[in-house]
Design goal:
This protein is of the alpha/beta class. Helix content is about 45%, strand content about 10%. Zinc ion binds next to loops.
Length: about 290
């Protein structure tokens, strides 16, 4: 039995809730740490749910050595924020924008080098394993680094695009890196004549419609959502956990820091995803048997 969202499994979960509280009371200073306790609750939620999704943020990429943009040692704090009107400039003068970009790419940024060298961390591999077990139906990521795919995840929507792909801004057709060979500047889509740019969503650029639809569709189906290294405070990402919560689904947070969503989570694991997710998927695999 891989999935069972029926009455019986809901009872199992309800009794586990009780058990969790009982253990917490009886063994308050005992051997079972708070993290193990939360891990067990999270594993049961995933096992009992019929449609589990994950919302992934920069915290997970950071564990693979990719610098974040904001906060503390973030790149923007050091270098200043990039111009907010990039997409507008692309639309107004595509030829000039592409010429500028070539110059930019020649002086490879700290971010570009870090991202080129980054490898998936154990958390990425754990999510791919959870998908193989049939207990993770979809990953929605805010990261652009392609590390989920390298680790083996296949059901994935990338809110901010994928740095290894090119996309037509007219019809959203995508090409893997090297598969689209531009014949002119600015590069034009062979299907619709739209401009073809990197798939990564720029400042001021709307999130592609097909991506948005996919995110909302998977969130609508979900009865459990993992929040991984994200505070989910920026829309549209902020909408998905709220949707799942409103439909009666469970939220599981894995994040060393608290977030505005922590209070409505059924399980909170205060640890990095690279440490926690492998243990979580191991426990789910035991429950699967
Ligand atoms: Zn097109």
């Amino acid at each position: 039995m891989l999935r069972n969202a029926g009455f019986e499994s809901r009872c199992t979960f309800a009794s586990l809730d009780g058990l969790g509280m009982e253990i917490g009371t009886r063994y308050h200073k005992g051997a079972m740490s708070e993290l193990d306790d939360q891990l067990e609750i999270a594993a049961r939620i995933i096992f009992d749910a019929s449609y589990v999704i994950a919302l992934v943020g920069a915290g997970m990429s950071k564990e693979s050595g990719i610098p974040t943009f904001r906060g503390g040692d973030g790149l923007w704090d050091k270098l200043g924020e990039p111009p907010m009107d990039g997409y507008q400039r692309l639309l107004e003068d595509p030829a000039a924008w592409f010429a500028e970009r070539e110059v930019e790419q020649a002086s490879r940024s700290e971010f570009t080098s870090a991202i080129e060298e980054a490898k998936p961390n154990p958390g990425h591999y754990a999510l791919a394993e959870m998908e193989r077990l049939g207990h993770l139906q979809h990953v929605i990521t805010q990261n652009i680094d392609n590390l989920h795919q390298v680790a083996g995840s296949t059901a994935i929507t990338e809110i901010h695009g994928n740095r290894t792909k090119q996309r037509c801004i007219g019809c959203n057709r995508r090409w893997d890196r090297g598969k689209f060979v531009p014949k002119e500047t600015p590069p034009r889509c062979p299907d619709c004549e739209g401009i073809v740019k990197n798939d990564t969503v720029m400042f001021g650029e709307p999130i592609p419609q097909d991506v948005l639809e996919s995110c909302y569709e998977h969130s609508r189906q979900a009865d459990a959502i993992l929040l991984l290294g994200t505070s989910a405070t920026v829309t549209p990402a902020a909408d998905f956990p709220v949707m799942v919560h409103r439909q009666g689904g469970r939220l599981i947070e894995v994040n060393p820091q608290g977030t505005p969503l922590s209070d409505i989570c059924s399980a909170v694991l205060r640890a990095p995803t690279g440490e926690t997710l492998p243990k979580l998927v191991e426990r789910v695999a035991e429950l699967v048997g």
